[in-house]
Amino acid sequence: MGWEYVVPGYLIVFGVLAIYAVSLIRRGRRLSEQLPPEKRRFLD
Length: 44
What we know:
Layout: H1 3-32
């Protein structure tokens, strides 16, 4: 019925989104370390 294509497709999409989200979080944390404390606009 096509489920052998649908399930892997969803797994690939959600896997790529998860990898992208983790990379964004890591990049944001790395960039936030470069800012001086008085310039940070968020809570630690």
